[in-house]
């Protein structure tokens, strides 16, 4: 699947913390109806079989909406379900090693310095995830990246850059002018009772951020 800057405009990262009486694929479908342009399935505690079952259900949705679907970290799951790719952090396999395993699938890499971003691009990454932009309860060990660093990363690489970490409807526009191509969101989407409306509003903000 071809990845361009529009593909990561509104990048939804799953979190089952707010499921209630809904299923994760129910929530994902609502985010897709609201305008999410990219889905990352992130699971830290599921066994392989349950992870694969869930990933297959979500892949059916992303295939129907024709948007990219990647798995966080779990390369084995991504291969098992033929996901569009994976997203990894600095403690995982680098993009060069992943490329050998995944062929032409999408590879996203988290980077919080210009040097790491350039290395990821040189190794074959398709996009960079930069954060945390703001402190976030979703990932309490993430250090906040300055706006100067975000801007420098965007200027240094030629591949798309998505910002993540503590972003929501009240602060997305603070990224205007940094050069980021999209925003990755967790609780701003999946904690909402009306996910469709929340995603529609967030999509409008992400589009405005890149136009202004």
Shape: globular
Beta-strand share of residues: 15-25%
User: Strand order within the widest sheet?
Assistant: 1-2-3-4-5-6-7-8
Distance between the termini: 28 Å
Do you know the CATH architecture? Answer: Alpha-Beta Barrel
Rg from Cα:
16 Å
Helix fraction, binned, reads 40-55%
The secondary-structure element order is EHEHEHEHEHEHEEHH
What's a quick, concise take on this entry?
The chain is built from eight helices and eight strands.
Tell me what the structure shows.
- This protein has one domain: Aldolase class I (TIM Barrel), CATH 3.20.20.
- It is 40% helix and 16% strand.
- The protein has 8 helices and 8 strands; from the N terminus they run E-H-E-H-E-H-E-H-E-H-E-H-E-E-H-H.
- It has an 8-stranded parallel beta barrel with strand order 1-2-3-4-5-6-7-8, surrounded by 6 helices.
- The model has no long low-confidence stretch (mean pLDDT 95).
Descriptive labels:
single chain; 212 residues; alpha/beta; TIM Barrel; 8-stranded parallel β-barrel; 8 helices; 40% helix; 16% strand; globular
What order do the helices and strands come in, and which of them pair?
Blueprint: E1 10-13, H1 24-34, E2 38-41, H2 48-65, E3 69-72, H3 75-81, E4 85-88, H4 95-102, E5 106-110, H5 114-123, E6 127-130, H6 147-156, E7 161-164, E8 182-185, H7 187-190, H8 195-211
Parallel strand pairs: 1-2, 1-8, 2-3, 3-4, 4-5, 5-6, 6-7, 7-8
